[in-house]
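Workshop exercise sheet. Pairs work together: one partner reads the sequence aloud, the other fills in the structure field after running the prediction. Swap roles for the next sheet.
Pair: D.N. / O.F.
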Amino acid sequence: MRLYPKGYGGHRRDPETVKREGWHEQHVLAVSLDDPRLTWPEREIVRQLGEKLYGKRAAGGEVRHG
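Structure field:
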């Protein structure tokens, strides 16, 4: 028994691959503030850009819609 239609499934790309391809193909950047590859100043730039574009994050890590 298959759980997916023929031609779909079997291979799921890891999140880093999705982010890399999004950047290369569509010029979309997805960055986590917790990414250990970033220095503190780089994290701060990402945080400031996120707040400018989408507003401040809710306290306690809650997702705020609106």
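Discussion prompt: The longest helix spans residues 40-54. What would you look at next?
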